[in-house]
Design goal:
elongated; 179 residues; mainly alpha; single chain; 0% strand
């Protein structure tokens, strides 16, 4: 991890591979696979990243981070249903995980599952109460599923957050009429 944090990626990969040679098949190897997957994800090597995350999950089915990371890749591969399945499993592992529930809610929005999106995003709003980003994104997503109150949440976040909130809201197409 230190090599990766220092930007010495090739050395980090070599060390993770050594660790796996010594302990492949163990639950602890899941972390090495996950970290290798994160490196490949950063490099844009989605297939290699997905393979590492899948191996981590096979070794440690309760490895939340690998499930979350794999769910980030699936939409890029046109596998949104698989992303939802992975995020739902992650949410069962840690029901109050902010990012898992936010991604899950947004995936539900993309699939047109308004009721499920609304429930997930209400949870995110509760978990992120007082945090500007959560209010902007969850309110924006609520707007996208036609859930009541989304415009109010976003309007309040934009008013309180000023320029920072407007920057966060950029790119959320569902907010076009709210800003």
């Amino acid at each position: 991890m230190t090599y990766a944090n220092l930007g010495r990626i090739d050395e980090a990969i070599a060390e993770y591979e050594k660790a796996l040679e010594m302990g492949e098949g163990t639950a602890e190897a899941a972390s090495s696979h996950n970290n290798l997957g994160a490196i490949y994800l950063d490099r844009g090597e989605l297939e290699k990243a997905a393979e590492r995350f899948q191996r981590a999950i096979a070794l440690a089915p309760g490895h939340l981070e690998s499930r979350y990371n794999l769910a980030l890749i699936y939409p890029e591969q046109g596998r949104l249903e698989d992303a939802v399945e992975m995020l739902e499993a992650a949410a069962l592992l840690q029901p109050n995980h902010e990012l898992v529930n936010l991604r899950l809610g947004l995936a539900y929005v993309d699939l047109g599952r308004g009721e499920k999106a609304y429930r997930s995003l209400l949870l995110v709003r509760r978990l992120l109460s007082g945090k500007l980003g959560g209010a902007v994104v969850s309110g924006g997503a609520a707007c996208g599923v036609g859930a009541g109150g989304g415009e109010e949440v976003v309007g309040e976040a934009l008013e309180k957050g000023g320029e920072a909130a407007r920057e966060m809201a950029e790119g959320l197409g569902v907010l076009e009429g709210v800003r």
